[in-house]
Amino acid sequence: MTDASPDLPNSLDAQLRRRAASVIPGGMWGHMRAAAVPAGYPQFFAGGEGARVRDVDGRDYIDFMCSWGPIILGHRHPEVEAAAREQLDRGDCLDGPTEHAVRLAEKMVALIPHADWALFQKNGSDAMTTCVTLARAGTARRKVLVAKGAYHGAVPWCSPSVLGVTAEDRAHLIYYTYNDVESLDAAVAEAGDDLAAIVASAFKHDLAIRQQLPDAAFARAARAHCDRTGAALVLDDVRAGFRLNLGGSWENVGIRPDLAGYSKAIANGYPLSAVTGNDRFRPAAEQVFVTGSFWYSGAPMAAAVKTLEILEREDGPARLA
Ligand SMILES: Cc1ncc(COP(=O)(O)O)c(C=O)c1O
What atom in ligand 1 is closest to the CA of residue 263? Predict the structure, then answer.
């Protein structure tokens, strides 16, 4: 451990920031861009163990960030590491999926009441984009309702930044206010007979606001609109998934979506996301072409099976609550 504060010019963090500034736009990209990391806050990390992370200058921190969400069992949980390692030692990226894809899909179908099937991707943005694609494919309609200010990813249809995004990318989005039944009713009316999906976050967790759990009346109204119109109720459980309820966060208000996206905690830090759906959307899920070179890697799926087993065994949501 050194006593170099990360903002001292000779700290390794400061040296890496200077090197990054010349070869990485903005010194780092996205939510990690250098300007978003205040002076004195470390940008570069070296490792993590249990509840702690260590920066490149050897300073330890309690990881209240959970590494932006993925860490749910603590860094390098021994059982998860062993499960991932076993597959890594045999090869991670192969010519097809490993048995862990089937094991994980079986696990999710067993845990999540609305799920008749599961598909896997890498990031939450992939999962939510897949949900919207499946909703449109399954309904042959275009309009998608999203809550104002909600985050569903960093791709053109939903990114909070409009730079590089065309109006056409968002032409079929209609916005409503989370937990506000009247605004949802109005958005549904505006969509008319072209409503493909109502997308809702597990709870209102937009940046820099007071967070709000879903109001049961709001969740029921969303379900009723989808039942009446045939649209898909899509739950974004990327951030909250496996933290509030292992069966999906809206189990807590008694409402089941048609499609749901997960990522973050699913594999305790290994890169993975998932979409679950019911049989109504199985034909769409069989037909659409959603894929990626790394979406079949075995080790993150092995890590996910183990993470979910541990969360089930230890009743993770109850301990978190
Ligand atoms: C609710 C929610 N949906 C989607 C995403 C996008 O996930 P990812 O960053 O893995 O693409 C996030 C990421 O923070 C999220 O919190």
Answer: 10
